[in-house]
Specification:
Number of strands: 0
Oligomer: single chain
Membrane topology: Multi-pass membrane protein
Distance between the termini: 41 Å
Subcellular location: Cell membrane
GO cellular component, one term: plasma membrane
Keywords: Cell membrane, Membrane, Transferase, Transmembrane, Transmembrane helix
GO molecular function: hexosyltransferase activity
Helix content: 55-70%
Length: 455
């Protein structure tokens, strides 16, 4: 078929029109969802019903704490359920909310949270081959809207007013989109806000990317220094009276009998659920499991990165970070939609691709519904109670099992391919674009990156 100049111009105009339509409609849906989540009295996405009925309790506490900091000089008060557990540099993130009304703050924060998710999708799409521009951004908006409506970790993130998508956007942009002298700046900012992303600085060291590691460490220290200058008493309290003496971790024991037992997916919380273990044995297992997860995860992520499977490497590191945190609530796992990109990146029909898809499926299930104990210990124990107990156990541990499974799959995939590719490079699957369900969205895509484990 031969295209005339007029026909080609018409095709390009239609293509631009569709791209702009997708962009503006996706952005409008995102804004509407954010508005309804705050101002819609009876609106909740379907998973909010009955179980996700909270209305920004964590964010509300942060706003109150910023007011107390300004007017009373108080921030790190004795630990409570809604205590401020962030490092002092996080004040820069929350303090502007003190300048507007709470309701406006809830709306802007919700919108910002969804926009950060959109940035993560945009970075992942463009890294995977989408040409940067209107179409990729529009698809990212629509992906965020769908995620907000059906994905349990994201729904919990919005319901509580949490920061996970903000941190993930910083890490994904730095990991996938930024190279050169600026690489590491966003990682340092993320580590200053929450500390746990500091594992990415260790990863840069494993990769021998000393400039990136130094840049990340420098941006982290600059933010810490700035917060120390502005809030010296609060900084001293956090670093010397909370962090160094371990109270920043041990305070979770005060309510681990409920929240830490039922909802958290960290190694520490899993061992706390095993109440029959002696404390000394539990501590030994905590150290041993943490070292194993950190070592295996870092080695696997380095190998994936060297194979140019950077999304898979990023997801592996995020799982490691979540497991090693003192607690890992559901909203820590808002990054798991990236598993779909990891499956496409490595190959959906490979064992690792199937592992990524299986792990993603686990995070689609609203396990929250099944975590609370439903049997009455004062009554006789029936066969039905046994099945309910098994379901409760699976629901409480699904995230940690899925996370461990994926890290293990990444390890075995890279180990096997390292041995197979010792003399030749692994062929790169260049036909994945034709297997996407929406082929018209892939027009003008660049070839995906790929290579050997040993490259």
């Amino acid at each position: 078929m031969t295209f005339t100049t007029k026909g080609l111009e018409s095709y390009c105009v239609k293509g631009r029109f569709y791209s702009v339509a997708i962009l503006f409609s996706g952005a409008a849906v995102v804004i509407i969802l954010a508005w309804l989540s705050v101002y819609g009295a009876n609106f909740r996405p379907w998973l909010f019903q009955s179980h996700y009925i909270v209305h920004f309790p964590d964010l509300n506490a942060r706003i109150n704490q910023m007011w107390a900091l300004d007017h009373l000089g108080l921030l790190y008060t004795p630990f409570a359920t809604e205590a401020f557990t962030y490092p002092p540099p996080a004040i820069f993130l929350f303090w502007p909310l003190n300048l507007i009304s709470k309701t406006s703050g809830f709306f802007l924060w919700t919108l910002f949270t969804i926009l950060c998710l959109t940035i993560t999708y945009y970075v992942a799409f463009t890294y995977s081959g989408f040409r940067r521009g209107t179409l990729a951004l529009g698809v990212s908006f629509w992906s965020s809207a769908i995620t907000v409506m059906i994905f349990p970790p994201m729904i919990e993130c919005l319901a509580w007013g949490q920061t996970s998508t903000i941190l993930i956007a910083l890490l994904a942009a730095d990991f996938l989109a930024i190279e050169g002298r600026r690489k590491g700046i966003l990682t340092g900012i993320a580590a200053a806000i929450k500390l746990y992303p500091g594992i990415f600085i260790i990863f840069f060291g494993f990769q021998r990317k000393w400039r990136a590691a130094g840049t990340a460490l420098t941006s982290f220290l600059l933010l810490v220094a700035a917060s120390w200058i502005l809030w010296p008493r609060q900084s001293t309290t956090f670093f010397f009276k909370r962090l160094l003496n371990g109270s920043e971790v041990t305070h979770f024991e005060s309510y681990s009998a409920f929240s830490g037992t039922y909802e958290s997916a960290s190694i520490w919380s899993f061992l706390k659920r095993l109440t029959f273990l002696p404390s000394s044995l539990a501590f030994f297992l905590l150290i041993a499991c943490s070292i194993a997860v950190l070592t295996i995860g870092l080695i696997a992520s380095v190998r994936l990165y060297r194979a140019s499977w950077k999304i898979s490497s990023l997801v592996t590191l995020l799982f490691v970070t979540s497991l090693l945190s003192p607690v890992s609530w559901d909203h820590y796992f808002t990054f798991t939609p990236l598993l779909l990109f990891a499956a496409v990146e490595v190959g959906r029909k490979t064992r690792f691709g199937y592992s990524a898809l299986a792990t993603f499926t686990v995070f689609l299930i609203p396990w929250y519904f099944f975590r609370a104990p439903v049997t009455d210990p004062t009554t006789s124990f029936t066969i039905q109670d046994i099945w309910i107990t098994i379901l409760t156990f699976v629901a409480r541990n699904a995230y940690i099992f899925a996370s461990t499974f994926f890290i293990g799959a990444a390890w075995f995939e890279t180990r096997q391919n390292r041995e197979m590719n010792s003399t030749q490079s692994r062929p790169v699957d260049l036909g994945w674009r034709q297997r996407l369900p929406l082929q018209f969205l892939t027009k003008g895509m660049a070839e995906p990156a790929g290579g050997s484990i040993n490259s």
